[in-house]
Amino acid sequence: MSQRITPEIRALVGRKHGPYRVRVEQGAIEKFADAIGDDNPAYRGIDAIAPPTFPTTFRPGDAYPDLPPDFGDVGLHASQVYEVERPIRAGDELDVSFTIVDITEKSGRTGDLVFVEREYEFLDARDGSRIGGGKWVSLRRFRN
Amino acid sequence: MSYKQGDALPELVKAPVSRTQLVKYAGASGDFNPIHYDDEAARSGGLEGVIAHGMLSMGFLGQFVETAFGAGRYKRLEVRFQGMVKLGEVITCRGVVTGIAQENGREYAACEIEAVDSDGRVVTAGSAQAWLD
């Protein structure tokens, strides 16, 4: 084991990205709900709340700790968690951060798989209170 | 909404997944991985063709949960991406209440949820918690 996870890759565990500030915009919520095909009126208008998976739009930018781009033949999404203390709303400003908490590998039927697990935190930029968080596990697949 | 342990949640049947929807979702979510809109990129990654974003199927499950319980009632969603969703698939979301619990004096329902494709194959599955009041 650990043929794919070199010491350099192992060193990513514990790396934190952010916090970076995100402003939640009404139009972004509406476009997101439109793309899902969800016409719930709660996700429209000046007082819109965000659909449960909207935090996927809180992109970390181009430079963040991750596996090298050419690592593996394809990158896929393994699992995801989102949780909130209250609904995220248009007008919210959030301080978003994530930490790589684990990197693991296993041999699958079609080749080796390397998993990267990250934990997210969303804080209210006004008072630092926790609004929510989540877990993002991605995988890279090496074909046999 | 009132649910008790063992209750099935109302099913949600989505329109067939189209390439246009994947392009819209790429733009709205910011996930521009080309395996979700470019067949050539998908094939070079060992896939048969374009697949939907896993997060789109999770989005369907979010819609399903907030349709069943009411917008703003979701507390937690956890899913595993088990199968790939190809173009044209009709995804159905379904779930069942596995228990009722309390946190800070508020009741919430815990549910098992899944999204299945036209063949009944589970593509995305996990659990949800939603406030009852």
Task: Note the topology.
The complex is a heterodimer of chains A (144) and B (133).
Chain A lengths: L6 H4 L5 E8 L2 H11 L37 E11 L8 E15 L4 E13 L5 E12 L3
Chain B lengths: L11 E2 L5 H11 L9 H6 L9 H16 L4 E8 L10 E12 L2 E11 L5 E10 L2
Antiparallel strand pairs in B: 1-3, 2-5, 3-4, 4-5
How does this structure look, described?
- The complex is a heterodimer of chains A (144) and B (133).
- By secondary structure, chain A is mainly β.
- Chain A has a domain at 7-23 and 72-141: Thiol Ester Dehydrase, Chain A.
- Chain A has 2 helices and 5 strands; from the N terminus they run H-E-H-E-E-E-E.
- Chain A has a 5-stranded antiparallel β-sheet, with no helix packed on it.
- The longest helix of chain A has 11 residues, at 26-36.
- Chain A is globular, with a radius of gyration of 17 Å.
- Chain B is α+β, with helices and mostly antiparallel strands and 133 residues long.
- Chain B is 25% helix and 32% strand.
- Chain B is built from 3 helices and 5 strands; from the N terminus they run βαααββββ.
- A 5-stranded antiparallel β-sheet of chain B has the order 1-3-4-5-2.
- Chain B is elongated, with a radius of gyration of 16 Å.
- The mean pLDDT of chain B is 96.
- Classes of the chains: A mainly beta (144), B alpha+beta (133).
- The interface between A and B is large, with 35 and 39 residues.
- Strand 2 (74-84) of chain A pairs antiparallel with strand 2 of chain B.
